[in-house]
């Protein structure tokens, strides 16, 4: 039985999501066991130390060293948890990051702003154009420098589209305050911090059209920061992305020619 099934958490759509739900289950079972244990101890104390049996307090307190031994045991258990589980699991995640770079990931810059999200794709060349914050003209403007050759085929969309079955690397950033890009069906979220681009990655394993929310209270329009996400079949995604890239290149070609004269 898994508590995560009763908590109203939506279906998982990413490769790693099942492990997150498993952790949620483990933590809930552990907390239930702790809650029951502490409640029994509380009930025991109420009965064992009731006023009619112990009208006077003991001024000596505990005289043995049990509590010191218990504290040492807690330190050892926590060291085992940290060194034996947390560090190796973190290492596995960071090692996979190197592997992900080789798996032909879809890359998108995600820009949070008050109050919405903008998506910047690198286009067919796979390279994001240079970003210059001084070129930003509105709060949703990603500030792309179109004098950069790498920017010529870049395109911007109001909806995030990514392929199924390939990793998606989203570089999360913000134009103003701290936001948080939170995709609940993918079991992943990342703070959007102005001046920083922080990559987050996951592999969608089913197609879905869903919404993405802002997970960080960021101002009066925070509740309206709902983004749209579409996970498409890989072939449909490539057709769409190449088409958008070609259109962007065509629309900028005359400008690029004038600039080079
Ligand atoms: Cu926000």
Description:
It is built from four helices and ten strands. The chain has a five-stranded mixed sheet with strand order 3-2-1-5-8. A five-stranded mixed sheet has the order 4-10-9-6-7, covered by helices on one side. It has helices at 3-6, 17-48, 66-101, 234-260; strands at residues 106-113, 116-121, 155-157, 159-163, 168-174, 179-183, 188-192, 198-202, 208-214, 227-232. 24% of the residues are buried. The chain folds into two domains: 3-101; 106-260, Immunoglobulin-like (Sandwich). Strand 6 (179-183) and strand 7 (188-192) form a beta hairpin. The mean pLDDT is 90. The chain has 261 residues and is an alpha+beta fold. The chain binds copper (II) ion. Copper (II) ion is lined by residues 112, 179, 214, 216, 218, 222, 225. The chain crosses the membrane at residues 26-47, 68-90. Keywords: Copper, Electron transport, Membrane, Metal-binding, Translocase, Transmembrane, Transmembrane helix, Transport. GO terms for molecular function: copper ion binding; cytochrome-c oxidase activity. It is found in: Membrane. InterPro entries: CcO_II (IPR045187), CcO_II-like_C (IPR002429), Copper_CuA (IPR001505), Cupredoxin (IPR008972), Cyt_c_oxidase_su2_TM_sf (IPR036257).
Q: Cα-atom Rg, whole angstroms?
A: 26 Å
Can you count the beta strands?
Answer: 10
Average pLDDT figure: 90
Sheet with most strands: strand arrangement: 3-2-1-5-8
How helical, in percent, are the residues?
A: 25-40%
Measure the end-to-end span: 69 Å
The backbone outline, from C-alpha atoms, is elongated
- Residue runs with pLDDT of under 50 for 5 or more positions: none
Q: How many distinct helices? A: 4
Strand content: 15-25%
SSE sequence, one letter per element:
HHHEEEEEEEEEEH
CATH fold field value of the largest domain: Immunoglobulin-like
GO molecular function: copper ion binding; cytochrome-c oxidase activity
Keywords: Copper, Electron transport, Membrane, Metal-binding, Translocase, Transmembrane, Transmembrane helix, Transport
Domain Cytochrome oxidase subunit II copper A binding: 103-243
Family: Belongs to the cytochrome c oxidase subunit 2 family.
């Amino acid at each position: 039985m898994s508590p995560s099934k009763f908590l109203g958490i939506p279906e998982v759509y990413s490769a790693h999501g099942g492990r997150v739900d498993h952790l949620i289950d483990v933590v809930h079972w552990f907390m239930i066991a702790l809650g029951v244990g502490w409640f029994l101890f509380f009930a025991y104390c109420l009965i064992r130390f009731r006023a009619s049996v112990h009208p006077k307090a003991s001024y000596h307190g505990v005289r043995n060293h049990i509590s010191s031994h218990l504290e040492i045991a807690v330190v050892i258990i926590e060291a085992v948890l940290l060194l034996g589980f947390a560090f190796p699991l973190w290492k596995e995640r960071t090692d996979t990051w190197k592997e992900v770079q080789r798996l032909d990931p879809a890359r998108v810059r995600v820009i949070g702003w008050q109050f919405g999200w903008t998506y910047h794709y690198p286009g067919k060349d796979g390279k994001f154009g240079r970003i210059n914050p001084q070129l930003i003209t509105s709060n949703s403007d990603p500030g792309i420098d179109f004098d950069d050759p790498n920017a010529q085929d870049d395109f911007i969309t109001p909806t995030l589209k990514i392929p199924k079955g390939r990793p998606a690397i989203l570089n999360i950033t913000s134009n103003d305050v701290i936001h948080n890009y939170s995709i609940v069906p993918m079991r992943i979220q990342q703070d959007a911090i102005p001046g920083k681009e922080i990559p987050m990655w996951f592999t969608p394993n089913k197609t879905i059209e869903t919404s993405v929310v802002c997970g960080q209270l960021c101002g009066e329009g925070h509740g309206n920061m709902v983004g749209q996400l579409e996970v498409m079949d890989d072939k449909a995604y490539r057709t769409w992305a190449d088409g958008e890239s070609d259109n962007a290149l065509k629309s900028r070609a005359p400008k690029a020619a004038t600039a080079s004269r």
